[in-house]
Design goal:
The longest helix has 16 residues, at 314-329. Strands 1, 2, 3, 4, 5, 6 and 19 form a seven-stranded mixed sheet that branches. α1 (14-26) packs parallel to α6. Helices cover 22% and strands 30% of the residues. The chain has helices at 14-26, 78-83, 147-159, 172-183, 204-216, 314-329, 393-405, 412-418, and strands at residues 2-10, 33-36, 87-89, 94-98, 103-106, 111-119, 123-125, 141-142, 164-168, 187-192, 220-223, 227-232, 238-243, 248-250, 253-256, 260-262, 273-274, 277-279, 291-293, 298-302, 307-309, 342-347, 350-356, 361-367, 372-379, 382-389. It contains eight helices and 26 strands. It is globular, with a radius of gyration of 22 Å. The protein is an alpha/beta fold and 426 residues long. A hairpin with a 2-residue loop joins β17 (273-274) and β18. Bound molecules: dihydroflavine-adenine dinucleotide (FDA) and nicotinamide-adenine-dinucleotide. Residues 11-16, 36-39, 46-47, 49-50, 93-94, 120-123, 144-146, 263, 266, 295-297, 312-315, 317, 343-345 line the site of dihydroflavine-adenine dinucleotide. The site of dihydroflavine-adenine dinucleotide has 36 residues, from α1, α6 and β22.
Length: 426
Amino acid sequence: MGRAFKTVILGGGVAAGYAALEFVKHGINHGELCIISEEPVAPYERPALSKGCLLPEDAATLPAFHTCIGTGAERQTPKWYKEHGIELVLNTRIKSADLRMKTLLSAAGETISYKTLIIATGARVLRLEEFGVAGADAKNICYLRDWNDSRKLVDIMAECRGGRAVVIGGGYIGMETAAALVANRVKVTMVFPEQHCMARLFTPEIAAFYEEYYKKRGVEFIKGTVMSSFESDAEKKITAIVLKDNRQIKADMVVVGIGIRANVGLFEGQLILEKGGIKVNGKMQTSNPSVYAVGDVVAFPLKLYGDVRRLEHVDHARKSAAHAVEAIMSPEKVQDYDYLPFFYSRVFTLSWQFYGDNVGKCVLFGNPEVQKFGAFWVDKGILMGAFLEGGNKDEYLRLGTLARLRPPVKDIEMLAKEGLAYPFFP
Ligand code: FDA
Ligand code: NAD
C-alpha cells in the first residue's frame, strides 16, 4: 500500500512551512506536494516555543503562530494546506528512506514515493542519558524542541510556580527558558560547563552584561561544571541535581538545553554528509540530484566566507527552504545560495541581533548601563561580525549591511568610541 507524489517534503517544521509557501507562489497542482511530519500540528514558527508560548499571561498557542507569520506572510493553518491541495501527513514518523527507489517508509508501514524529495528533518535535542547521567528519565525533566515538549514545559512550569528550577546548559535554550521561568515566578539556577553563558557567540564581556541582568532577577549561575546525577523521590520526580563535585541543588523541575544533532540518520550511507549535516551545493541539492535538503540539517557552502557551515537558526531555515524551491521550480533562473548569517534572541525586555561571523578581535561600543551596546568583530582589518543589544529597526538594518559589505576598519579605538557612527565608508 502506498501513495505517490511529485514532491515530498520530509519534516514539518519551519523550513517545510516556508518551502510550501514558495511552491504555492510558483504555482503547483493539487495533489503534487506532500509534507510528512512526526509532529501532530502543521508547520509553525518554532522560536515561539521558548518565547510567546512561555509567557505567564496571554501565552501564545497554536494556531496563532503557524508559518509563515514570522515574516509577515500568510498564516498557514491546516485549512490553508487543504485549499492549496497540499497533503499534510501529520503524526507520521518516517523510519527508513530508500533514495535509489525514491521511497519513504513510515513507522506505521506506509510507503510514500516521490520524484523529488526535500529533506527538512531539522535536529533532535541531545539528551542527558547520552552523557551517562543517571535518573535522566524522570517525570519533571523538560527538553524543548517541538510542540509536545513545549506543552509539557508549560504544564510543569505552572505546577512549579513559587518553586525552584535548575536549567542545564548556558546556550540559547538555557537563557531563553531561564528568563521565562523567572517571569513565571520560578527561581532558577543555571548550570553549564563554560566560564560564561552563550559561549558560542558571546565574549566574556558581552556575557557579563546578560549574566548581571539575570542575577538581578534572582538567577544563580554555577559555571565550569556539569551535573553527574539526580536525586529522585518515589514517584520518579527529581528533587535535586548532583554536580560532579557532589554539591546538591534542590529542584522542583529541570530544563535541559545542551545542544542538538542534525537528523541525518535516515540518509547515512546514501548521501554525502559533512560537519554533522547533509552536504548540499548552492542550489540546496544533495549528492543525489533528486534530493534537496534545507534548514538545520544541511551543511551548505557559505559563499561569503568560502566555507561550508551548518547553521541552527530560523532565518536560514526560511531562506534555504525558499531557495531550494526556487532551484526546483526555476532551475534556469536560480543563483547559488548567498547567505549572510543572522541570529537573534529576546529575553526579559532585552533583545539583540547578530549578523556575520564572530571571528577576530571583538570591539565593544555603546553603554550597557542603558541597555544599549554592541560589538564588532574585526579580522585582519576587515569588519566581519556585528552585534547590537537594544537597537531599532534602522540600526539593525545597518548592522546587516555592514556585515554583508565587510568594510575595512583602520582605527579600532575610534570604532569603539563611535560604534555604528564610525565612518565605514568615508
Ligand atoms: P525543524 O526542527 O523546525 O523541523 C524539523 C521537522 O522534521 C520537525 O517537525 C520534526 O518532527 C520533523 N522530523 C524529523 N525527523 C522526522 C522523521 N523521521 N519523520 C517525520 N518527521 C520528522 N532560531 C532563531 O534564529 N531565533 C530564535 O529565536 C529561535 N528560537 C528557537 C526556540 C526553540 C525552542 C527552538 C527549538 C529553536 C529555536 N530557533 C531559533 C532555531 C530554529 O527554530 C531552527 O533553526 C528551525 O526550526 C530549523 O528549521 P527546520 O525546518 O530545519 O527544522
Ligand atoms: P546551544 O548549542 O546553544 O547550547 C548548548 C549549551 O549546552 C552550551 O552552551 C553548554 O553550556 C551546554 N552543555 C553542553 N554539554 C553539556 C553538559 N554535558 N552539561 C551541561 N551543559 C552542557 O544549544 P541549545 O541551547 O540546547 O539550543 C538548541 C538549538 O536551538 C540550537 O540549535 C539553537 O541555535 C536553537 N535555538 C536558537 C534560539 C535563537 O536563535 N534565539 C533560541 C532557542 C534555541
